[in-house]
Amino acid sequence: MEAQPNSASGKELVERIQNDLSKAQYRYGVQDPFTDSQYYMSTANEMIAKADQLGFIRFQGYTADRAVSQISKIDGEWMRDDGKTLAEIQSGIDQDSIEEISSRAQLRAKARQDVDHTIDRKLALADASAFLRIQDPKMQELAAVALADNTREFPNYKTSLEVAYSGNLRNPSKISPIAERVAKVDARSTARETVSARH
User: Fold this and answer.
1) Same domain, yes or no, for 33 and 64?
2) Is the pTM of this model over 0.70?
């Protein structure tokens, strides 16, 4: 059982995490009628690759609240039924995801020690899920900085991020790709700070 935080920021963090984890964690999907398989993808590029692999020219887009729209390839360009391009849709998803990560990071910093390990575990899962939805490399870098800050400040968060989406919750053979990326960004940032401090 998780301990409930006492501070307003701790309580707000718990509510935000619960709300964010209740949303759809993927943004695209397609059903293969030949194998009766359903595929869910986090980014537009992943979905396009899967659609091309399957030879499909149509797939579904999902909002955070699970509203479904159809996305079709028209004259070589992927577009939603309302005329919005897939690039525009993904750009919005990238922006929303980075805002979610940043907002939760601010709440986590305010809550400080008023959060137990189970809340940090759920926070890491929510952050990892949002990180996977970011396609733009520059936006991924911004998100990784926020995640790296949390890994330095909160050991339980770091441990949880290392296993998030690794496919193995106990003694994983290697840390998750998300945690690897965050560690690289953190190392570069630390190296830059060291060089700046010397000059």
Assistant:
1) yes
2) yes
Do 42 and 140 belong together in one domain? no
Is residue 16 located within the same domain as residue 113? yes
- Residues belonging to the chain: 199
Which H or E run contains 184?
helix 177-198
**Boundary (domain end) residue, out of 62, 88, 114:** 88
Please give the chain's pLDDT, 199 residues, in tens: 556 777 788 899 999 999 999 999 899 999 999 999 999 999 999 999 999 999 999 999 999 999 999 999 999 999 999 999 999 999 999 999 999 999 999 999 999 887 888 999 999 999 999 999 999 999 999 999 999 999 999 999 998 998 887 655 555 456 788 888 888 877 777 777 777 777 6
Q: How many separate domains does the chain show? A: 2
